[in-house]
Amino acid sequence: MAHVILGLLLIGPQSLYGLVKAFEAGPSLFYSASSGSIKRALDGLLADGLIEVVSTEEGARGKKVYGVTDAGGAAFRRWMTSEIVGPDLETAVLPRQFFLGLVAPAERVAVLRLIVDRIDSDVAGLEALEQRLETVEVPDGYQDIAEYQRATLSFGIASGQFTANWFREQLDEVTAAPDPVHGPDGGPAARSKETAGPPEADRP
C-alpha cells in the first residue's frame, strides 16, 4: 500500500480525496484499498518523513495536499529495484509494472528481470510439487477428488508460464528500446512526447 501511494504521489501531489479517486482509476485493478486504509498509510508515510504536506487549502476543511520527499523517492526506487518477496504474486509484480515508467529507462530492464525471476521460481515450485504428486498413490474412493485438485495445480502452472512469457515480452521490448540519451542512430535522442502529468485538480 505505502509504495503504491508513493508511486501515485510521484506522478503528482494529491489530496486524500485525489488518491482515493486515483486508486479507483488504476491500482484497484490489482490492489484493494479503502479511504480509511489510504488515510492510515498516508499518516504512516508522513510520520516516516517519506511524504510531506505541500499545501493546505483555505476553509473549514483545510484539505491537505501531499507530495513525496527526497527520502520517499529513494524508498520508492529501492522498492522497485529490490528482490520481489511476499506470497501474493499479483500484488507483488503488477504495481511494479504499473509504475515502471517512473524509474530510469536503464533500471526498467533490471526490474523486469526481477519479476521474471520471481515468476519462474514460483512456477518451478509448482512443477516440483506436480512431480511429487505423480508418485503418490491415491486411495480408493478419492481418485475423483485428486483428479480435480491436480487439475487446479495444472492451471496454476499454466497461468504462471503465461505470465512469465508475457513479462519476457515486456523485457524484450524494453531491452530493444532506443537509447534514451543517444537515440537509435547514435545521435541525440528526439524529445519524447509529453508524459502524463499530474491528475486533474481535485474536486472542491
From TrEMBL:
InterPro entries tied to this protein: Tscrpt_reg_PadR_C, WH-like_DNA-bd_sf, WH_DNA-bd_sf
All copies of domain Transcription regulator PadR C-terminal, residue ranges: 98-173
One Pfam family per UniProt: Vir_act_alpha_C
Top-level lineage group: Bacteria
Region Disordered, annotated ranges: 173-204
Assigned keywords, A-Z: DNA-binding
GO terms assigned for molecular function: DNA binding
Name of this chain's protein: DNA-binding transcriptional regulator, PadR family
Taxonomic lineage of the native organism: Bacteria, Bacillati, Actinomycetota, Actinomycetes, Micrococcales
